[in-house]
Amino acid sequence: MSIPIHILKITCAVSIFLCGNCLEAASFIAVTGNSENGEFRENSFYEVETKKGRARYIGSASVAPNQLAYDTLNGNYYYMDHGGSNFYRYDVNEGIEYLMGDLTAYGMPAGKTGSGGGDFYNGRYYYTPETGSSSIYVVSLTEDGRGISRQTPITPFNLGLINPLDDGSAGAGLGDFGDIAIDSTSGFMYGSSSMGSGSELMTTFWRINLTDPQFEMTILNANVGSVYQLAFDDNGQLWGNSWQSGGVMVQLDPATGEIISQQNLQYREDGKGKWRDANGDFYDLASTGSRDGFPVIPEPSQTALISLALAALGCRRRR
Fold first, then answer.
1. In the record, which residues are listed under signal peptide (predicted)?
2. pLDDT by residue (tens digit) across 56-76?
C-alpha cells in the first residue's frame, strides 16, 4: 500500500521538529556558592540549557557546594562542602539534602577541602581536592546510592613526568583546580587545572584514560588561558564556565581545550518573566546524560578474586 505524499511530508516535518527539540533540550547541572553569584541564588542548583544559556533554579544546599556530580539514573546530586570535608547527597525528586559522611574518614587527605573537581561515572563518585594532590579519589557507593562503601585513590603513572612538582603546594601533582568531567562514551576524564609554579606555571587542559590500569595522563593544552569548571551535556558536548567571567559559558573542544563558542548565562527573576543576561558564575558544573560507559579497572575486591583464580589455575597447570 502506498502512503500519500502529503502524509509523508507531515511525518518528516514532525520527525525533524521532534529531533530538533531533542537537541535543544541538552543541558548540564551547575551550582552557585556564597560569592560572585550575581543574579543567581546563593548555594543553589541550576539546570543550564545549552542552546541559550538559560539557567533554571532547582533547589538549594545548606553549605556552599563544590565538586558537584550527578547520578542521572537515581536522581542524586553529590557534592562536598566548599570549605570542609563533608560529603552530601541531594535527592532531586524529594528536594532534600542528606549528609553522607566526612570523607577524611575514608582517606581524603587531612587539611584539604572540597573545592576541587568532581564527576559521577559507572556508579562511582570521582573527585580531587582543590590543590596539590597527586591522586583522583574514587568513592564507591552502596547499591541505592545512599551510602559510602569505600574510597580508592588512583594516580596517573606518568604524572611525575608531566609535573615534577610534588611538594604538596598549590600547583603540585594534579594542580590547582578547576574541575574534571568524564566522557561516558570513551572512559576519558578531562581536567582543567594550574600546574607548577613561578615561570613553570601551566594553565593546563588534560585527559586521563580511566580504562587504562596505569591511568595514563595526556596534556592536551599547556596554555588554555583559563581554568574552567567542566561538564558534558546530554549530547556529549563539553562546556565550561570560568570563575569571575561575568556570566559567560563556553563550549570547549575536548581535543584541545580551545573555545568553540560562547554565550551569556541567563536568568529570570523568581523563575518568572523575561530572560535576562546574568553576571554571576558557578562554583561547579556536573555532567548529564548517561553516566555509564566503558568499564574502569576492576574494584579491589574483584582484583583479588581474579588474582586468586589465576593463581589457582597456575597451580592446577603445574600439577
1. 1-25
2. 999 999 999 999 999 999 999
